[in-house]
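This is your field. Please look over both lines of this record.
***
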Amino acid sequence: MSQRPVTRFAPSPTGYLHIGGARTALFNWLYARANGGTFLLRIEDTDRARSTPEATQAILDGMAWMGLDHDGEVVSQFERAPRHAEVARQMLEAGQAYKCFATQDEIQAFRDKAKEEGRSTLYRSPWRDADPATHPDLPYVIRIKAPLEGSTVIHDAVQGDVTIRNDQLDDMVLLRSDGTPVYMLAVAVDDHDMGVTHVIRGDDHLNNAARQMLIYTAMGWPLPVYAHIPLIHGADGKKLSKRHGALGTNEYRQMGYPAAGMRNYLARLGWSHGDAEFFTDDEALEWFDLDGIGKSAARFDFKKLENICGQHMASTPDAALLHQLEDFLAVTDAPRLTPEQAAMFLEAMPHLKERARTYPELIEKAQFILASRPVQMDEKAASQLDSVSRGMLLELTPQLRNAKWNRADLEAFMNDFAAARDMKFGKMAGPLRAALAGRSATPSVFDMMLVLGQAETVARLEDAGQGGD
């Protein structure tokens, strides 16, 4: 690659970063970072009713959580409106655009008549080739002079060559009668001025590319490389919408999915490198290219997402995972860990992160750490403690006070205790889990005992034996 790429992510602020937008941002970030390029962020905030500072901040927060850092200042499309208007007037002066004085009523009448006669309703302005001397002193829009014959070919890095007949392209409005620029003009001018070399975006923008190319050609600007990526669908094959569950990155964050897992899963959603499903950020950066993006829509699958997230949690160093968990607790306004709890979490983390796919699952497995005496039990755990098992715990606790507190000795002690009562240790495990954690699904009894320490373990078992719940 002779030229270092410049990519951009250009969301409209709607209050949160949609998961489809997050994947678009990720692909742009990966391509720029993988090739030593630049990744820019532009907020398309021309809709002033919806574009609030809070909505913009929600997008920035979503990108920060996803780990997608951008280069340079955030560009506001709205603030660049004078530059957009300037380009429209340059095109007008160069004869690449014209003033159109047609009213909305006249345009609608044209379309109604064309429909009635079975003709194309694509509006053809009578002002396209009018003598400027005949121009009235009335409001006007500036329209581009689209080619009337031939075809426009979009050389797309994902979709291949896409050909659009020029008789399907209208003379689109560039500047409204109030002097404000339209979206198509703003995007093309911003992409050019920002030096964007690769426009990587959803394939719902594919037809827009043909219209934006008209502006590039009229201005004599070099075209960017276009790469239109398929949209994300739900498991039912329909376009992703609220009925499919969480939509914004903020929701996935609140649900406790790790960001590394989200990056991996979204990268794999529509792009592939051989058969690799689980990969690190470094591997994604090494492998990512536009050739690996498929043409067909990808289907969002929560089970696959959870599987990938579980693998990332399992491979994350314990201290780093504890830090991520504490961030999650802060974001969800959950109680923070005390220094003592954090220390126990760190010690227990190798056992907690086994088969945990989200932070809430990690927390559920760590209830024995978060619980305080007397331990509150759920219904299933409480059912483990009948009079026989309580008696066993009361018999066990005095002996545990003198036990050596390491795994090998504890295992030997517990097995001997069980054998003396003609049973296997497995029979004791349920009551012990209930007493220590108030849950029936926990890390191993010995892991919990070692993390809690001798005094706390004995006290909890004694509470349960005496019927304290």
